[in-house]
From TrEMBL:
It comes from Magnetofaba australis IT-1. It holds the Pfam family APH. The lineage of its organism: Bacteria, Pseudomonadati, Pseudomonadota, Magnetococcia, Magnetococcales. This is Aminoglycoside phosphotransferase domain-containing protein. Residues 191-393 form the Aminoglycoside phosphotransferase domain. InterPro entries: Aminoglycoside_PTrfase (IPR002575), Kinase-like_dom_sf (IPR011009).
């Protein structure tokens, strides 16, 4: 016999959560590069004797009731409101497997027996619940039967009620994307970042203390640096504010929200301390950022086993003769557009000014930056002024965060040509606003986007753990180079 997990995605998203995330359905919330519905489906797939169905609307409810009448092998149902999600997935998985031995009906969740609970029952009771609790909209159906038919359990799996803004924000602020050598732990008040790369941890920690006073308020302050054995760590205040990447991929920011955001980001850019350097030093910094690093990363990617597979696709399913042709095109445009820049100052840079390193509350317009490149001396702070804005552009215009979260498709079109498809197209209003801020701060959009293309190409070997992602970065970089070439020719 089987237990059917009914994932109910018909519940309306609370207004506060919709405002924060732009969501129409809780199931579409992206957590650690997966939609919540996909995570619950994976839990079901890993549970012996469990089936999974995603109920999206009233038609699905009617089809579900008919299915239960027909499929006699289903004898139990676990009703799972999509607004509930476990903060401890491992514990939730253990709970699902233990339910196989249940001889009672159970309620559990953050408020077992409340208006929104997980409920485990037999098919007959679930059919009654469908008719009265779901179809007729009786929110008290489960609560009225608590202690009579249902036995309430403790909150196994530490389920969060995502209809509550605080709980939803807690989940989103756990959405850390760390590399294999890093670790993130947190409690209600603090985040602890640790790594086996002890020098990197020290640089990130010391960076804040080296900043001039006018730049420090933009950052979340690190403290309590420690070295323990092979690892080092530091602490930061935990702000219950989701990073901008999460808000961006959920399309929670309207164009009108972008104006105050860019005003604050470019205030940081404009306030960066400057340092005059000899032309040769300036040129060396620019060449290192946009030429040497790119060439080193491409060479590193070619040493990986994945390269041959990606190269074969580029040669046989695109208009390019391989990765080298795309890189050569970049170098050609770099040489052509370098004349637009004259030797100048270096500035104190963040070093990775993308949306995932910005915490932003669009209601209060609070902006805080995290995870800078780091520094152990004042000299380490300075970089080319364009580097931060190129990083910013690859989130605003380049849709980096969608590719990084796996929200893209690689398709073979007619003629067996490979194409990259992303959930959104660049918004003309957003692009116009971004260019206005760039111009106001003294930056050239064409040069910015050229450097942005180099960032996408430079990231290829760093994301080779997901086979499709390097190809997504390459095709996106090629599209940006198309734009740069057309823009340069028009001027």
């Amino acid at each position: 016999m089987s237990r059917l997990i009914v994932y109910d995605d018909t519940l309306p998203v609370s207004e506060a959560v919709r405002s924060l995330t732009g969501l129409e359905h809780y199931a579409d919330l992206i957590h650690r590069k997966q939609r919540l519905a996909e995570r619950v489906a994976q839990l079901a797939a890993n549970t012996r004797g469990a089936l999974f169905t995603h109920m999206r609307n009233r038609a699905d409810l009617r089809a579900l009731r008919e299915r239960l009448r027909q499929e006699e092998q289903i004898d139990r149902v676990l009703y799972w409101p999509a607004s509930l999600f476990p903060s401890d997935l491992d514990e939730a998985g253990v709970m699902l497997n233990k339910l196989r031995y249940a001889d009672q009906f159970y309620l559990f969740g953050p408020d077992p027996g409340g208006a929104c609970s997980l409920a485990d029952m037999d098919v007959a009771l679930f059919q009654t619940f469908c008719a009265r609790g779901l179809a007729d909209g009786d929110p008290a159906f489960l609560a009225d039967r608590r202690g009579v038919i249902f036995t309430p359990l403790e909150n196994i799996g530490q389920f969060l009620d995502l209809s509550d803004l605080t709980a939803c924000t807690q989940l989103l602020t756990r959405n850390f994307d760390v590399r294999f050598f890093n670790g993130i732990t947190h409690n209600e008040y603090e985040v602890v970042k640790s790594s086996s790369d002890r020098d990197k941890m020290r640089r990130e920690h010391d960076y804040y203390g080296l900043l001039p006073p006018q730049m420090q308020p933009f950052f979340v302050q690190p403290y309590d640096f420690q070295e323990q054995g092979e690892r080092a760590s530091y602490r930061m205040e935990r702000l219950l504010i989701p990073d901008l990447a999460i808000q961006w991929i959920h399309q929670a920011l309207a164009p009108s929200d972008l104006e105050p955001l860019l005003a604050r980001v470019f205030r940081f850019i404009d306030l960066r301390a400057r340092k005059s350097v000899p032309p040769a030093q300036w040129q060396a910094e620019v060449e290192e950022k946009y030429v040497a690093k790119l060439d080193e990363r491409i060479a590193a990617f070619k040493r990986l086993p994945l390269f041959e597979r990606v190269e074969a696709l580029l040669v046989n399913a695109t208009d390019y003769t391989g990765l080298d042709a795309i890189v050569a095109r970049y170098h050609q445009l770099y040489a052509q557009l370098s004349a637009r820049r004259k030797p100048g100052d270096l500035v104190i840079g963040h070093g990775d000014l993308c949306f995932s390193n910005m915490l932003y509350d669009k209601h209060t317009q609070l902006l805080r930056l995290i995870d800078p490149r780091g520094a152990t001396s004042e000299a380490d702070l300075y970089a080319d002024p364009y580097y931060d804005v190129a990083k910013l552009s690859h989130s605003v215009l380049g849709r980096y965060d969608f590719i990084n979260q796996g929200l893209f498709d690689l398709r073979l079109e007619s003629g067996l040509t490979l194409s990259l498809t992303l959930p959104i197209e660049p918004d003309a209003q957003v692009a116009e606003l971004f260019e206005a801020y760039l111009t106001r701060s003294g930056f050239d959009l064409t040069v910015t986007r050229l450097y942005e293309a180099s960032l996408f190409l430079s990231m290829i070997p760093l994301h080779a753990d997901v086979a499709e992602k390097p190809l997504g970065f390459i095709l996106n970089a090629a599209a940006i180079l198309d734009w740069v070439e057309q823009r340069a020719a028009a001027r």
